[in-house]
Write a structure and sequence with these properties.
With about 280 residues, the chain is an alpha/beta fold. It has helices spanning about 20-30, 55-70, 90-95, 125-135, 140-160, 185-200, 210, 225-230, 250-260, and strands at about 5, 35-40, 75-80, 100-105, 110, 120, 165, 205, 235-240, 265-270, 275-280. The protein has a single domain, classed as TIM Barrel. Helix 5 packs parallel to helix 6 (about 185-200) and helix 6 (about 185-200) runs parallel beside helix 8. Bound molecules: zinc ion (2 copies).
């Protein structure tokens, strides 16, 4: 299974442990590399983002870890960039100011129009999700989900980044209640976004967090989307989106087997020399 994880959150954003705890755990697991990807700073208050005034401390601390453990583990600094139209800064702004090694682009907050509150599609509580659909999209799930994917597409078209994070996670709290994953309109949205991902040479993240947190019965992306990923020849990466060191390689064994069954043979790996293919095993 992969001996690296490029998507994790420490106390600098909404993780539950110090950066050092992750590094020590990664070394115990025999990892070759580890990437921190705190939620990017946003120009408004959230419960999960890295605070602007903490960016320098994040740089300093991860630099110290890079040097201190250089002979044991490659440590990378990244951000999981939130894209909110009009509001979020251009990804290049934080890439430069945070001196990141690579970037993950994700949508967690959906804009239903300038001035409106944002729809938070993630987190542990489906109530927030349901309230957003009711209050911001007139209770119309199709309108809400379409807006999520259009915002995702806008991110892909306008921002520079490497990995697209959990790109169908909008269905997590739906859990087959308002629509089915096999509904044609929903599959069309998945298809459109994947075409764009392919066009922009992005890496699709296979994110295990929904499964091991028991918030979803399926991976992000799910089996249908993964089959399309395979058909299109889009590169993949496996990550656990860890918020605690105990989650560093959660369900990696299962995912590798599953991906092999779907016909995947390779995944992407990042090193100081950039991205390269690696045999999936
Ligand atoms: Zn995320
Ligand atoms: Zn994350």
């Amino acid at each position: 299974m992969p001996d690296y994880n490029l998507h994790q959150h420490s106390l600098f954003s909404d993780g539950k442990a110090e950066t050092l705890d992750y590094v020590e755990k990664a070394i115990r697991l025999g990892f070759s590399s580890l990437g921190f990807s705190e939620h990017s700073p946003l120009p408004f208050n959230t419960s999960f983002s890295l605070k602007k005034e903490r960016v320098q401390a994040y740089i300093n601390e991860t630099d110290i870890l890079k040097h201190r453990f250089a002979d044991k583990l490659e440590v990378f600094r990244s951000l999981e960039m939130d894209f909110v139209p009009v509001l979020s800064e251009d990804f290049s702004f934080w890439a430069m100011n945070c001196k990141t090694d690579y970037l993950i682009g994700s949508v967690h907050l959906v804009s239903s129009g300038t001035g409106n509150p944002l729809w938070f599609t993630d987190g542990p509580d489906p109530k927030t999700y349901d309230e957003g659909i009711r209050n911001l999209f007139d209770g119309d799930i199709k309108k809400a989900v379409k807006t999520f994917f259009h915002q995702t597409n806008q991110m892909i078209e306008t921002q520079e980044f490497d990995i697209i994070g959990h790109f169908d996670k909008v269905k997590m709290h739906n859990a087959d209640r308002f629509f089915k994953d096999e509904d044609k309109w929903y599959r069309n949205l998945i298809g459109e976004t994947l075409e764009l991902i392919k066009k922009k040479n992005l890496i699709v993240e296979i994110n295990t967090r929904g499964l091991y947190k028991k918030r979803s019965k399926k991976l992000f992306p799910d089996d249908y989307a993964l089959k399309r990923v395979k058909e299109l020849g889009v590169p993949i990466i496996i990550s656990s989106d860890a918020h605690h060191p105990s989650e560093l390689n959660a369900m990696f064994d299962f995912v590798v087997d599953y991906l092999k069954q779907l016909g995947f043979n390779e995944m992407m790996k990042f090193s100081d020399s950039g991205w390269h293919d690696l045999e999936l095993k």
